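>> received
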Amino acid sequence: LTGSMLLIAGFAGYVIRAVVWPVRKAAGVASRLAGGDLTVRMSESGRGEIGQLGTAFNTMARSLGESREQARSAHDRLGLLYEASIAIGTTLDARQTAQELVRVLVPRFADFVTVDLALPVLLVDEPLDEHGACARRVALGGVRDDPPLDPVGSRIALATATAAVVPDLHTSWAWQARHGRQARRLLEYGMHSLITAPLYSRRTLLGTVGLWRADNPGPFAEHDLSDAGEIAAKAASAIDNALSYAREHDTALTLQRSMLPHSLSPPDGIEIAHRYLPASDAGEVGGDWYDVAAMTSGRAALSIGDVMGHGIPAAAVMGQMRSALRALARLDLAPDQLLHQLDQTMQDLDSPILATCLYGVCDTAANLCRFARAGHPPPALITPDGTARLVDLPSGAPLGIGGISYTTTEIPLAPGTVLVFYTDGLVEAREYDLDERLDELTRLLAGAHPSLEELADTLVDRLAPAPAQDDIALLIARVGTATPR
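>> returned
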């Protein structure tokens, strides 16, 4: 019996050592794995099934670890691409877009980023230098402030038109040979991996992006090149939009300025000052105009208007309206009749559009002015003693509606009276009430103004929003020869 007991006890000990303890250890390890510890491993030295269980467990743990790392990497990549999609191209400014590109990539993807744009993108008409530089560095950012990279403003040669990754700069003899001393400085600084990505839009090379790693020990890989290319494509599209917008702005502005009078020649007894400020936003450059035309008997026709809409179409209609108004003014029509005829002209255009207008005929001999307005802000008046007020005129409807009657109002003007015509861009601002802005206008006008040029500058400096949200046209006339006190 004693021998049997010893045999049973020995077998039980063997079972505990060979089966129970390994199973308990396996259960503990499995519990840690279930808790998210993918680094845990089982011993593979057990016999038979226990050893096989350890091998299978470790294979599964490694696979789960790799899957989690791949999922984390995919999540990070998607997060980067999503951030790029919402953070790049928030403005229609190519330089600002380049800065946004740098902010997205540093330090999340690269330690240093440079953006170089071709000179035509920057609307710069410069010849190539002796090294063939045809771009300018517009953005540079990094995790440190002293990289041995060409600073913003440097002329750069666009040397690459294809995307490329150099995982290890230390072993890239081609890169080192191409960049010589600059390569040695970069390597000594710690740069060890590089991606270059072209900025292409509609098959046109707009510039290049350089991405460098120094502090981050991981080299760039092929999948990083794919991500960089996708982000660069987003930036290139935004830069191309900015370029198109800037060109439209310049075209509309050139067209509009060509249609505004380069000089005004009022009759004797009338002094004139005028200003035109385009909107900062290309899409807001519109159809503001002003004009002064001499009439018979020493009279002068003063006009100002604003074609509703923006861009090249509004500027083109503005030119037609100004020409039509000049022609009608020569017929010596009453102001209300002139606006009625102008309204008919607006309706005859190929692309009907609305416009506001203020028209006045000043008679220095009779000391009076006859006004009519079509939906335009009222003129302001400064009497010779410095009192300023808005002239109360029937507002009328904008031109182009049709079937509208306008009203002529006659206002006596003492010699030396100043009239101020303006478009809504001077007094309208998104964050202010219109009545408050009109009160500010009359406050600035009050008092003596020996120089109309200085008065025009004051109004623009004090009232024009910065940046200008809309076109601003301003026409100031002193009627008569008396000098205000």
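>> Residues 128-132 have pLDDT under 50 and may be disordered.
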